[in-house]
Specification:
There is one protein chain. By secondary structure, the chain is α+β, with helices and mostly antiparallel strands. The protein is built from four helices and ten strands.
Length: 203
């Protein structure tokens, strides 16, 4: 008797569950949507449409990867509003990557590196040109071309070391006297940038 009662309750609960459960989308009949005339007209137009343009479509084609390592590295140093170096043939460039100073020579493996505020040096024979970059990215290609995209770039010789040290002292004081997290974060950014500037002179 007890077994019959439990079976009855289970079967009744199953029936109620089946009655209230929602059907899967795959169980529903497919509905035709859209205007058939429009679809037919679109199918006639699609083969004649040109594919969308990408940024690479407007760039000059890169030279092919040479079979031998070239003697020079081609460097492009670009800002949002200016081009500092364009197609410059150099021996080596050292960039301030977030992982540390990274030297790039001809034949360097293709790499993308994020830049932090620091010293960027361009080596051409015995001449070394130093720049301070505030941040950006370096794209090293397999064909010995290095594209360096920076927010700000300033020749190191144009920076006043005394003003750098003064600014560093001011931002250090702001860090100690900051009353909010936002003020402390802004002051810490100033400390980091001025410390990198100061290191560029002493390093």
């Amino acid at each position: 008797m007890l077994q019959r009662g439990s079976r009855f309750l289970v079967s009744r609960a199953s029936a109620e569950l089946m009655r209230w459960s929602r059907r899967f989308s795959t169980d529903l009949p497919a509905e035709t949507t859209g205007d058939s005339k429009f679809i037919d007209a679109w199918k006639k137009v699609v083969p004649n449409l040109d594919p969308p343009k990408t940024p690479s479509s407007y760039m000059a084609p890169r030279p092919p990867t040479p079979s031998t390592i070239p003697s020079k590295l081609t460097v492009n140093l670009v800002l949002p509003y200016n081009s500092v170096l364009s197609g410059k043939q150099v021996d080596m460039v050292i960039v301030p990557a977030t992982t540390g100073q990274m030297g790039v020579l001809p034949g360097h493996v293709a790499t993308i590196a994020e830049l932090k505020p620091g010293l960027l040096t361009v080596h051409e024979g015995n001449d070394v040109t130093k720049y301070f970059v505030s941040g950006g990215f370096a794209f090293v290609h397999a064909n010995s071309v290095a594209d360096i995209i920076a927010v700000e770039v300033t020749p190191l010789e144009h920076i006043d070391q005394a003003l750098v040290q003064k600014g560093l002292a001011e931002f250090l004081q702001k860090v100690n006297t900051a009353s909010t997290d936002l003020e402390k974060a802004e002051a810490q950014i100033g400390v980091d940038v001025h410390s990198a500037l100061n290191s560029a002179f002493t390093g």
